[in-house]
Amino acid sequence: xxxxxxxxxxxxxxxxxxxxxxxxxxxxxxxxxxxxxxxxxxxxxxxxxxxxxxxxxxxxxxxxxxxxxxxxxxxxxxxxxxxxxxxxxxxxxxxxxxxxxxxxxxxxxxxxxxxxxxxxxxxxxxxxxxxxxxxxxxxxxxxxxxxxxxxxxxxxxxxxxxxxxxxxxxxxxxxxxxxxxxxxxxxxxxxxxxxxxxxxxxxxxxxxxxxxxxxxxxxxxxxxxxxxxxxxxxxxxxxxxxxxxx
Length: 246
What we know:
InterPro entries: TPR-like_helical_dom_sf. The protein has 13 helices and no strands. It has helices at 2-13, 21-32, 37-53, 58-74, 78-98, 103-120, 122-127, 130-144, 148-163, 171-184, 189-201, 205-217, 224-245. The chain starts with a helix and ends with a helix. The chain is mainly α and 246 residues long.
């Protein structure tokens, strides 16, 4: 009986994959090329088609949310960013119900909430009670697999402590988490870029420069679209650091 119960619990935590491996590999290959508008459009269309046929396929759900969070991150219009963040969040809430022991939807739900919060404004998001929901999902991701996405859950937790308004902001905790992620995943340029911002805000411009140099000189091979985006965005922080060091 105990073996039967164990088998049933595993089935709940790890739902049967409906999408064939070759389809998932194709979707992942398109995602790797997402900085190309045509590849991103093709991926969006493919995910929409596949989810219409298999709306409860966890592997499709989290990959769809992954694309939505990317689109929300790069969106310039706050209204579009808000919509995309909410879509990613909602999609992953469905995924969490299907597979609460999997890291992907816990992580991308947190990213979706974060994107939505940035769009509406952090203070307003706090007023809407989103901080607890964000931390519930992100802390679950950290418990399940803090190394997912090159230490992504830890990086986002570090950024969370930076983004909060005074008096909730905690630069020391932000730096500690970002240093931890950057040490374990030195290829993760976002970890270094966020660390540079935290250090600069904390009055440590010289140390911030060390981190921003790692962004500027870092390889993009681990995740070209992500890394190139971070390098472009880091130019503003680099200029602020240089101004502070004059």
